[in-house]
Amino acid sequence: MKVTKPMIIRPTKRGDIPALQQVLDDTELFPSELLPDMIDGFLTTADPADLWLTCKTDGTAVGFCYAVPEQLATGAWNMLAIAVAPAQQGNGCGSALVARLEADLKARNQRIMIADTSGTEAFAQTRMFYHQNGYTKEARIRDFWAAGDDKIVFWKSLA
Is 0.90 surpassed by the pTM of this model? Predict the structure, then answer.
């Protein structure tokens, strides 16, 4: 049984980037060298359109999530990324990040959240995570990511 440590969920700060790059290296979600440019607008804009949240445990950033408003839709958001350090997975960090993201968007009167993932066996745990956090499997787009790698779209009402 894993020991649950106190977590802090808050907007991502520039000082979190090195630890979050390590999370990316450990999870292989996407290349960690992309992170500084991806997050720069959030960190430098007074009222950014996107939302980045970080989970810290013992003073170290161990997870993050990233969401953007869907273009040409009213009140619809897409959680483009969520990652938790492998040693912290199963401790509630991912669910806490999603709950905070949803709460922040509800406070902004947003309507729905979608999240895309792979349909391969390697992402079975990710699909279960979304299901356990109240998301409904809404769509499958065959061969989206690559031949034999379907895109699975999850949906949740924020109302």
Answer: yes
